Amino acid sequence: MSGERLLVVEDEVHIAEVICDNLALEGYAVSTESDGAKALETIRRDAPAMVLLDVMLPSLDGFAICDSLRKEKNDVPILFLTAKSSNDDRVRGLELGGDDYLGKPFELRELILRVRAILKRTQWFRGAIHGGNTLTLGDAHVDFKTYTATLNGKTFELSTKEAMILRALAEQPGVVVPRAEILDRVWGYDAFPTTRTVDNFIVRLRRVLEPDPQNPRYIHTVRGTGYRLTP
Amino acid sequence: MISTRRILQAYWGVLALVLVLLAWWVVFFSRQGDYLIARIARSGESLTAEEAHAVRAASNETLRMFLSEGLFLVLLLIGGMALIVRSMHRELLAYRQHKDFLSAVTHELRSPIASARLYLESLLLGRAEGEKARRYLEHAIQDIDRLTEQVDGLLAAARLQRTMPEVVSEVLDLSAHVRSCVQDIEQAGLAPGARLEFHTSGAVVASADPRAVSAIVANLVSNALKYGGDPPRVEVNVASAGNRAELSVRDFGPGLRGADAQSIFKPFVRGDDNDVRMRPGIGLGLYMVAELTRALHGDLSAEDHLEGGGMRVCVWLPKARAGAGA
To answer: Is the peptide bond before B210 cis (omega within 30 degrees of 0)?
Structure first.
């Protein structure tokens, strides 16, 4: 039994009930909220291990909740569960900082697997943070606790995804980490982003950490495969 | 979809070009008379004052002609642009309504499907037994009933768009009938904290179809409860208004929030407000109310900016004629 506290934010009473029952059977401690604004307060106050978030909610919609949390640097994992399942909606949800997106109707087993996967990814990343890890790349210093990178006296904020990508590379210094593995560790097994998305994040990381981003010294591209970090 | 901004930019470009050409014509023709006179002088011939005046007059005449034609062209372009902008605005509105409708229908249909599926899948996987399994089955059936209701609503709206509903008007004690409808809604259960009140000035007898009136009350009250504040407060009132019977439903929510009071009775129209879009509904309730009211030879209107806030929808129905048998 894992016992992690999950919050289901869903205004459809039946859906909330059946999801809660099934997650409780998996050993999670589940609570629910049906109102968007109240859910935001609950997340801030109770800091659940994960939020399963509907989009169409009274008083404050799920996208706005996710946006508010990410702007507050609250990195609680968010799984969108919604009938708004067009590509545009999925992209919007993930761009706002959602960890995964599941369109209604969905399979119960798939929901449970996704919840497990997201929690596993979070545990992996937080485990690294709790280990007190920092990363030094030449003059650049990365602090995984504060999601910041410092170079030449300037401090840059890293997003959760950027920090996770860096962590995935830093765990295997000198080893080529395939793009697919990065995707799997950071986004999940069938996540929406493509391998190009990883490339875009790497470009941003190089801008922050490399003295000359055009000629990287630390984050190397291995053509057709992935990336290698050489501290 | 072609970008409206691009089309407008192209139009502004053409208009600017025409204005530049027009300006060039003005400059060109205003100097043409003097230019011709100078050229004739250079060729060694001399013009009398009358001849020079005639040359300038001819040049000015040409200038006036080009100016009037040019201005006409500019006006034509501005008029065309206004027509295009209006047409595109309508297209965009229709496109947005269609998109909103699809989004709302998707949500309304997917939610009960998702719920029923989760209950049934839980049962299939043996994750519920005994009383819990029975409850899951009951809830799955409720979800399917809700789905059926939504589909019926859509079909009814489609029928309403093709033909007026058939109503059979009779002498109806509107006060008593509406009171009974309100009681039915209360018995079906209100959200926690919701208040639904009924007021009447006494017996008001209308000529109306009781089924149609029931549907009107159900839709108006449902709409008012949905948008009538948190928790919602709704007042239903029946009164006599001259030779008509007045049924009004008032809520104390945020009102129309900028929505057009007439357009809310059109099918699949929902408010601009994000909060409205995030609530369940497909924009058919008030449309059905409007169609049923028309079928009953009645009239209706919506108003907000009321003292105390909220919105009121009034439906006026013809009173039963004196001596008409019940």
So the answer is: no
Instruction: Dihedral sign for Cα A220, A222, A226, A230, please.
Output: negative
- Mean pLDDT comparison of A143-147, A192-196, B133-137, highest-scoring range: B133-137
Inter-residue contact A148 to A140 (CB < 8 Å): no
Copy the structure tokens of residue B212.
């149609």
CA B105, CA B101: separation in Å to the nearest integer? 6
Q: How far apart are CA A54 and CA A206, in angstroms?
A: 35
Instruction: Report the C-alpha gap between B37 and B286 in whole angstroms.
Output: 76
Which residue is closest to B118 within chain A, CA to CA? A108
How far is A106 from chain B, CA to nearest CA, in Å? 7
**CB contacts, 8 Å: B194 with chain A:** none
Look at residue A85 and tell me whether its pLDDT is greater than 90: no
Strand runs (DSSP E) across A44-133, as ranges?
Answer: 50-53, 78-82, 100-103
Confirm whether the ipTM is greater than 0.95: no
Cβ–Cβ below 8 Å for B278 and A21 = no
- Whether A218 and A209 have beta carbons less than 8 Å apart is answered as yes
φ/ψ bin of B229: left (φ > 0), alpha (ψ from -120 to 50), beta (otherwise): left
Find tokens 């003097």 and name the residue.
B34
- Closest to B176 measured CA to CA, from B220, B223, B236, B232: B236
Specify the range with the lowest mean pLDDT, choosing from A30-39, A48-57, B38-47, B95-104: B95-104
Instruction: Nearest by CB to B111, from A12, A57, A58: name it.
Output: A12
Is-cis flag, bond preceding B231, omega within 30?
Answer: yes
CB contact under 8 A, A59 and B106: no
- Judge contact between B284 and B217, C-beta under 8 A: no
3-state secondary structure of B241: strand
> What's the pTM value of the predicted model, to 2 decimals?
0.62
Q: Which of A20, A22, A56 to mutate to test the interface with B (most CBs of B within 10 A)?
A: A56
Distance CA B209, CA B240 (A): 18
Which is higher by pLDDT, A65 or B16? A65
Give dist(CA B291, CA B217) in Å, integer.
13
Which pLDDT value is given to residue A1?
Answer: 47
Asked if B139's CB is within 8 angstroms of A17's CB, the reply is: yes
**How far apart, in Å, do the first and last CA atoms of chain B sit?**
58
* Coil, strand or helix at B57: helix
Nearest to B77 by CA among B144, B9, B147, B18: B18
Does A112 touch chain B if contact means CB atoms closer than 8 Å? no
Q: Cβ separation of A61 and B274 shorter than 8 Å? A: yes
Task: With beta carbons under 8 A apart, name residues in chain B contacting A103.
Answer: 110
Instruction: Please report how the helices B210-227 and B174-188 are oriented relative to each other, as an axis angle in degrees rounded to 10.
Output: 50
Contacts of B127 in chain A (CB under 8 A): 21-22, 25, 108
Number of A–B residue contacts, CB under 8 Å:
74
